[in-house]
Amino acid sequence: MHDHAHGVTGVRGAANSRLLAVSLSLTATVMVVQIVGAVLTGSLALLADAAHMFADASALVIALIASLVAARPANERNTYGYQRAEVFGALINAVILIVLCVWIAIEAVQRLLNPGDVEVSGGLMIVVAVVGLIANAISMWLLSAAQRTSINVRGAYLEVLGDLIGSAVVIVAAVVIAVTGWMPADALASLLIAVMIVPRAVALLREVFAVLGERAPEGTDVGRIREHILSADGVADVHDVHVWQLTRGAPVFTAHVVVEPDVFNSDRAAALLSSLQSCLSEHFDVEHSTFQFEPAGHREHDAH
């Protein structure tokens, strides 16, 4: 017997798309301000932050497109819909972050080796960095709730978080330059921005590979799920248990359940199925579940 509990929605369409669009507008505006500020002040840290903003703007465009694609309904060729588009968008975001880190590091080292080549205006640098800090804080606030349920929005959220920290670092470097005139502070700030970005990029990349590798979602205890199923009245055994994700916040579950003969004989199968689906939904946040009921003595195996 087969049945499904439907409820997987991935990025929930229009709401997340609007958030990404607003965040994109803020990011693009601040990016332009920082590029102008970097040219006027000679600051590598501002230019690095502007480059990060450019990467974020590109990533947000990717995220926005992915969220719109993911909202398309399923069809006969794409039976789960297009929710995996979110994962590919997050993968591109992670690659952009890593490439950006390498570029920032190279530029910062060159500045440190030749500290007298560029004079940086600390006062104007502070003003531009504060504008970036405020804009990033607003973007983070807008994306904070949605990033908990969408790997794609989470990618954008992590990049905005990197920008927020980067803006704070730039402000510190600008104050040092304005007060002491020590120019290497600008290059050191740029290098620190690169170092801070790497762990978040790697973490996002690991999460993408976990989804694409169809690993069980983080925090999902497959053993406990099996115990809950076995404790149900009428269940004799359970095998071929599989749990994976279409995208962040969209777990999928399948299992073969061996039931006692009286489950079929007394027409209890429908009630048992409903009970198992409710158990997964309420206790493990698995909304999409598929169970195959088998009589005792019958067991199917995967080819492997």
Task: Write a structural description.
The chain has helices spanning 14-41, 44-70, 84-113, 122-143, 151-180, 184-212, 222-230, 261-265, 269-284, and strands spanning 235-245, 251-259, 288-295. A 3-stranded mixed β-sheet has the order 1-2-3. It has 2 domains: 14-212, Alpha-lytic protease prodomain-like, CATH 1.20.1510.10; 222-295, Alpha-Beta Plaits, CATH 3.30.70.1350. It is mainly alpha-helical. The two termini are 23 Å apart. 64% of the residues lie in helices and 9% in strands. Strand 1 (235-245) and strand 2 form a beta hairpin.
Summarize this structure briefly.
By secondary structure, this protein is mostly helical.
